[in-house]
Amino acid sequence: xxxxxxxxxxxxxxxxxxxxxxxxxxxxxxxxCGGGGAATPTRQLATPTLSATAIGAVDIGQPPGAAIDEIxxxxxxxxxxxxxxxxxxxxxxxxxxxxxxxxxxxxxxLYFLADEPITxxxxxxxxxxxxxxxxxxxxxxxxxxDPRDLNLVTETGIGxxxxxxxxxxxxxxxxxETYDEEADTWTWSIDEPSGTFIAGLLSGxxxxxxxxxxxxxxxxxxx
Length: 223
What we know:
The chain is of the alpha+beta class. It has one domain (4-217). 17% of the residues lie in helices and 25% in strands. The strands form two sheets. Strands 3, 4, 5, 6, 7, 8, 9, 10 and 11 form a nine-stranded antiparallel sheet that branches. β5 (99-105) and β6 (108-114) form a beta hairpin. It is globular.
């Protein structure tokens, strides 16, 4: 399940009038670290599938150079890049490792961790793709948007905008739903024996409430 610290991090940017999410996503935090310009896809590739172990051909644990190149080949240059910062930066919650880099395409963010300080010569050897998050941006036109129209989904077709009912149909007994009273959020997780899984937030308690955030667990944030 999404950690309480991770929920606090998300809720820094998500407001909940009448139980509906209407705030800002992690793009606010990334913008503070500097961002890129307009992005244009470089070649036409199939949209990658989200899973607990990969985004399409980009596997968890892969060096950042190859991972960023692959996603850039599909979606174009990233919109945001935090560069290498301390892993316990308050912008992203406490992440394991020594340094952290977060690269974003619209509402998709890839987190890379390093176990030692990064230099120009050791980035790919000392760091790895650790986790990802994919969530609606509520700062645009006061509504839920996926700025790049990435339309990423899991193998079972679950993505942003999928309903609670669709989650239940697709995952049945492997789906866990929890209401966090302190954060006033409805969370869900697709549990897997490996201990890594996809989890996220729903817009409310109703059957037609929609998925507004998806992330790989474990994620940054701690317990």
